[in-house]
Design a protein that fits this description.
Blueprint lengths: L9 H10 L12 H6 L9 H21 L6 E5 L5 H11 L8 E7 L4 H13 L2 E6 L9 H11 L5 H14 L4 E4 L4 H5 L11 H12 L30 H19 L6 E2 L5 H7 L4 H4 L3 H10 L20 H22 L13 H4 L7 H11 L9 H9 L5 H17 L1
Parallel strand pairs: 1-2, 1-4, 2-3, 4-5
Helix pairs in contact: 3-11, 3-13, 6-7, 6-18, 9-10, 16-18
Length: 421
């Protein structure tokens, strides 16, 4: 049973405002596949041997996923500038039984960002058809109906604007013999969320989770909720199998926030990075090889040298073959150059690492997100747990101040409640 208006409370409102989603929506648990895959005994061996096993793991994982699909399946990869979607595309291209004509990609984002620009470079190098969607164009629908339909698609309170964008591929490709390949759980399983100094007690991990997931500052909206009220009071499994921080990430953030946005349907989406073979290897290699996805980066560079010689958003616009320090230098130079050029030309500065779209601008544009935002904000202001002067904040935003983060959260709440009414 999903929380409808009758079951909705100020506590749920406060939880969504704090985290951006509802952490305790339904049962909170680590998926069975992860619980069974995480073991105390590590996969040891020389670096050469670990690389060999990792390359086998990638091949076997995709072989298993593809064996469950019809031979004439069309494979669509939503492509970013990062590593997960590039790994999927490269693995599909390497598979001898898939014709390249049955593989295509879709890129969505804002011109000038790494995700938008680098993904197109990857698609071109791969020689596959790529559909490009500029999220700042008027072609993207931002009506109230679009947002409420997105809430129905996600079936739970999630960041509605992010969900609306990720719903676009589902709208375009939900047809027979077509699947979308999702990078869900790719980065976390290979170690991107493994802390360098893991907490040795659950309370420490809770504090870490709260600090890293907080969305709204108190000066934006008074938060009366103790966030621990909606989080589990005890660990899910032994810390020797999986760090407490990753347990919270896998059970809550990944399941309650990421999955409903990037891969809500098991019918349309293929999720290779939650395959049992994948989990059994990556969750059990030595922690030192999971730090900063160290072993994963070594493997994909060897397994897919062509696509991983190209620049990535992961290394600030450079290939992952280049030293991380050089990537940071390149990122800093790129940011400063873009800022200077934007100011010189009087244009809006777009940070190259920005996700999705400049929502603050879209909320000021009458041809895009402004009409739906204004109407939904006035409605949500009457809900329990909302203690702000919406009209004043809206006027401030239209005058140049940026309240888009808070507005996005309020839109998520109101869109969800309208879907449930």
């Amino acid at each position: 049973m999903f929380p409808g208006q009758k079951e909705w409370s100020s506590i749920k409102t406060q939880a969504v405002l704090f985290f951006g989603y509802l952490p305790n929506h339904g049962e909170i648990r680590i998926p069975k596949s992860i619980r069974e895959a995480a073991r105390e005994g590590q996969i040891n061996g020389s670096k050469h041997e670990l690389v060999r096993q990792g390359r086998d793991c990638i091949r076997q994982t995709f072989e298993r996923q593809l064996s469950e699909l019809p031979a004439n399946t069309h494979h669509v990869v939503p492509l970013s500038g990062g590593l997960d979607s590039r790994t999927i595309l490269a693995a599909l291209l390497n598979h001898e039984k898939i014709n390249k004509s049955n593989i295509s990609t879709i890129t969505f984002g804002t011109p000038g960002t790494w995700d938008f620009e680098l993904s197109q470079e990857v698609a071109k190098a791969a020689g596959v058809e790529n559909e490009v969607i500029d999220l700042t164009s008027t072609d993207v629908g931002w009506s109230i109906d679009d947002l409420v339909e997105t809430a129905a698609w996600a079936e739970r309170p999630v960041p509605i604007l992010e969900a609306r964008i990720n719903k676009i591929p589902a709208e375009k490709y939900s047809k027979q013999n077509t699947v979308l390949w999702s990078g869900f759980m790719g980065d976390p399983t290979v170690g991107s969320h493994q802390p360098s100094s893991p907490c040795d007690n659950w309370n420490c991990a809770l504090e870490h989770f709260i600090d890293n997931n907080k969305q709204v500052n108190k000066h934006d909206h008074p938060i009366t909720l103790d966030p621990k009220e909606v989080l589990p009071s005890t660990p899910f499994i032994d810390r020797a199998k999986l760090s407490y921080e990753e347990q919270l990430d896998y059970a809550i953030r990944q399941q309650k926030y990421i999955k409903p946005i990037v891969a809500p349907s098991d019918e349309l989406y293929v999720k290779p990075f939650i395959d049992e073979r994948w989990l059994s290897f990556w969750l059990n290699i030595p922690p030192s090889e999971r730090n900063d996805r160290r072993l994963f980066k070594k493997i994909v560079k060897k397994e897919f040298p062509n696509l991983f010689s190209l620049p990535t958003s992961t290394n600030y616009g450079l290939s992952i073959s280049r030293h991380p320090f050089l990537g940071k230098v390149n990122g800093a130079i790129s940011i400063l150059t873009r800022k200077f050029c934007s100011e010189l030309k009087g244009h809006r500065y777009i940070h190259p690492n920005m996700n999705y779209a400049p929502f603050d601008d879209l909320m000021r544009d009458s041809d895009r997100l402004a009409p739906a935002t204004e109407e939904l904000l006035l409605e949500v202001n009457n809900r329990d747990g909302i203690y702000i002067d919406v009209e004043t904040l809206w006027k401030e935003h239209q005058s140049g101040e940026n309240h888009s983060n808070l507005f996005s959260l309020l839109l998520s709440i109101e869109s969800h409640l309208r879907f449930k009414e």
